[in-house]
Amino acid sequence: MTDRSHFHEEHVDGFGTVRIRPLDPASDADVVHGWVSEERAVFWGMRGLTRDQVAGIYAHMAGLDTHHAHLVTKDGVPAALFQTYEPAADRVGECYDVRPGDLGVHVLLAPAGPGGPRPGWTSALLTVLTTYALRTLDRRRLVVDPDVRNTGAIARFERQGFVRGPAVVLPEADLPDVYLPEKRAQLAFLERQVAFPG
């Protein structure tokens, strides 16, 4: 069973109800296109693409067994794009020793909006996402690969219990639908027994 068959819902006291569901390439295209078109999302490789091109990429991904896209909502409002993937089928797998039970994750949070920074917001979302990936999907370890210059993201992952691995250079990938530039990434790992001891 692949993770596209899963739907996760969790209520977080003082935060709200978080839902993780498979991304719908057609109905979610407007939201996702807006997010991946921003400068902060340059390493998602979709800046400059049209809404229909972005929808096409996610329609293609929906047919893969190795890569999955999810839309995360908080109280019904889109909050994040969450992608999971098999590291051995991704360029990150060329940069470290992949173990059985590893799962790669990419997270793109919704912009803060007119209210500005949201204290505790990122931590609450990441807690739900890691619970889903490690428990619902029954994985042993998560790997993330933020840009080495994104010190804020690296610090956020470390606060969630991720441990830094090596800094690596992910090779460029010129895929049929998207071009991913070479990326200097800081790998970090979260073991299930660290996230959920005992």
UniProtKB/TrEMBL annotation:
Protein's pathway: Siderophore biosynthesis; mycobactin biosynthesis
Annotated coiled-coil segments of the chain: none
Domain Acyltransferase MbtK/IucB-like conserved: 21-69
InterPro entries recorded: Acyl_CoA_acyltransferase, Acyltransferase_MbtK/IucB-like
Function text: Acyltransferase required for the direct transfer of medium- to long-chain fatty acyl moieties from a carrier protein (MbtL) on to the epsilon-amino group of lysine residue in the mycobactin core.
UniProt protein name: Lysine N-acyltransferase MbtK
Organism field: Streptomyces incarnatus
